[in-house]
């Protein structure tokens, strides 16, 4: 295991939460809502338990859930989905990532990610002896919006070899908050068409969280891309219940069938009552205006945290969607210099400094880069704003006090 973990340093999200607990800081680290799961959602799971949905269910997904997902996603994908063969439920989207990589990559293959990337892609690849390669998003000079992060598609094209089996896309993007435009995705699709061996993992767990009216674009809708793409979603993210561990993949039957197999081997099935709970939550969400209120709530939290970061001199790159904002920590170079005798990455040291001195914990994103590009993260930290209003206010006043 040690050698397969590639010198990895444990789970950065668990470490940030433990550090925040130890120092009593405001935890803006791991992307989980600290406000309560909505009552209508909680009730759905409570009722499912009372209704005796407490045993194993179909490994590929509880029949009630996959039928409900079909009714939700048919219009979004503009298709008549087959609930039994084109949907695979997983124990959280993170397990979905593993299921996809174990299904489509052999040892020595490569998975290509847009950098910075959620480190679970690389960790899953490491476990499987699969290489991770990154193609960086580059910031245009003076960038203020996550929309200013651009992917060079020629660079992407050049990075693809016959060993590249999976291309991971992610919109809204963790950690930058970029929401890819249709045009940007079209350019990527043109590259995918040139490489018939590639499977696309389109991680869209923040699909219902775009801001300022921006649309969420689905890669699988582009010409020819349905047959090439597994889209990955998270009920935990959509319904603010990340501990339920219910995620799901949607794609063509030939790509989804292996996921049914791997799910039955790895966890047998995701938690049954919570799958039924998610189905019922989806049935209610639209009529209570849930999706609009989720996006509006997060947008207000984004604005509050970004204003405080700006006032504290930690220039934020304003996210267009999702849970996270990247902020520039170069104003703290006197307190935390780039060079350090212990060789610990600067972003990790800045996060410790902020936790101990200011009482705020974020996530260092050096682990979101491949080794050659890691210095791009030296002066950047990620903060999650999917937090309760009192926590956002507490973080804001600590930042303002320090400014
Ligand atoms: N996506 C979450 C984040 O980036 C973490 C999810 C997880 O740890 N499984 O904070």
TrEMBL record:
InterPro entries: Aminotransferase_I/II_large (IPR004839), Kynurenine-oxoglutarate_AT (IPR051326), PyrdxlP-dep_Trfase (IPR015424), PyrdxlP-dep_Trfase_major (IPR015421), PyrdxlP-dep_Trfase_small (IPR015422)
Cofactor(s), names only, from the UniProt record: pyridoxal 5'-phosphate
Assigned keywords, A-Z: Aminotransferase, Pyridoxal phosphate, Transferase
Lineage: Eukaryota, Sar, Stramenopiles, Bigyra, Labyrinthulomycetes
The organism's place on the tree of life at top rank: Eukaryota
GO molecular function, one term: pyridoxal phosphate binding
PANTHER family xref list: FI04487P
Cellular component terms per the entry's GO annotation: cytoplasm
Start and end residues of each Aminotransferase class I/classII large domain: 26-397
CDD domains assigned: AAT_like
UniProt name for this protein: Kynurenine--oxoglutarate transaminase
Species: Hondaea fermentalgiana
Similarity comment text for this entry: Belongs to the class-I pyridoxal-phosphate-dependent aminotransferase family.
């Amino acid at each position: 295991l040690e050698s397969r973990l590639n010198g990895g340093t444990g789970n950065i999200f668990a470490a940030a939460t433990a550090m925040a607990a130890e120092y009593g800081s405001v935890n803006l680290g791991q992307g989980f809502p600290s406000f309560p799961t909505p009552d209508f959602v909680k009730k759905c799971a409570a009722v499912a338990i009372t209704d005796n949905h407490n045993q194993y269910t179909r490994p590929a997904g509880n029949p009630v859930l996959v039928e409900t997902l079909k009714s939700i996603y048919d219009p979004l994908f503009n298709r008549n989905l087959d609930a039994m063969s084109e949907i695979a439920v997983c124990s959280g989207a993170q397990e979905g990532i593993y299921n996809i990589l174990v299904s489509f990559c052999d040892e020595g293959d490569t998975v290509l990610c847009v950098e910075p990337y959620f480190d679970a892609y690389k960790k899953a690849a490491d476990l499987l002896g699969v290489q991770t390669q990154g193609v960086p998003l580059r910031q245009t000079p003076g960038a203020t919006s996550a929309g200013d992060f651009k992917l060079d598609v020629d660079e992407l094209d050049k990075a693809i070899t016959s060993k590249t089996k999976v291309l991971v896309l992610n919109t809204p993007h963790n950690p930058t908050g970029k929401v890819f435009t249709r045009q940007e995705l079209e350019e990527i699709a043109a590259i995918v068409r040139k490489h018939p061996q590639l499977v696309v993992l389109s991680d869209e767990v923040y699909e219902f969280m775009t801001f300022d009216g921006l649309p969420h674009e689905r890669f699988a809708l582009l010409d020819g891309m349905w047959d090439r793409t597994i889209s990955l979603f998270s009920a935990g993210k959509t319904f603010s219940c990340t501990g339920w561990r219910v995620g799901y993949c949607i794609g063509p039957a030939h790509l989804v069938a292996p996921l049914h197999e791997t799910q039955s081997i790895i966890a047998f099935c995701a938690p049954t009552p919570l799958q039924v709970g998610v189905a019922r939550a989806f049935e209610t969400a639209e009529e209570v205006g849930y999706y609009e209120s989720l996006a509006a709530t997060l947008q207000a939290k984004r604005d509050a945290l970004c204003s405080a970061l700006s006032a504290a001199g930690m220039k934020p790159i304003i996210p267009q969607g999702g849970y996270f904002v990247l902020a520039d920590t170069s104003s703290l170079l006197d307190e935390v210099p780039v060079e350090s005798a212990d060789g610990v990455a600067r972003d990790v040291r800045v996060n410790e400094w902020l936790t101990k001195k200011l009482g705020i914990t974020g996530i260092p994103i050096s682990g979101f880069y491949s080794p050659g590009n890691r210095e791009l993260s030296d002066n950047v930290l990620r903060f999650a704003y999917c937090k309760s209003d009192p926590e956002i206010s507490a973080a804001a006043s600590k930042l303002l006090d320090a400014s």
